Amino acid sequence: MDDHVQFEVVHEGREVRHGFEPFVASFEAILGRFDPEVQADFDKEPAVATARLERMAGEQGLMLFATQDHGALLGLLGRARNAKRYHVGNPLIALQMTQHDIRAGLYAPLSVLVYEKDPSTVRVEFDRPSSLFGQFGNAAVTKVAVELDKKLENLIAKASSLTKQATG
Question: Rounded to two decimals, what is the model's pTM?
Answer without folding.
Answer: 0.93
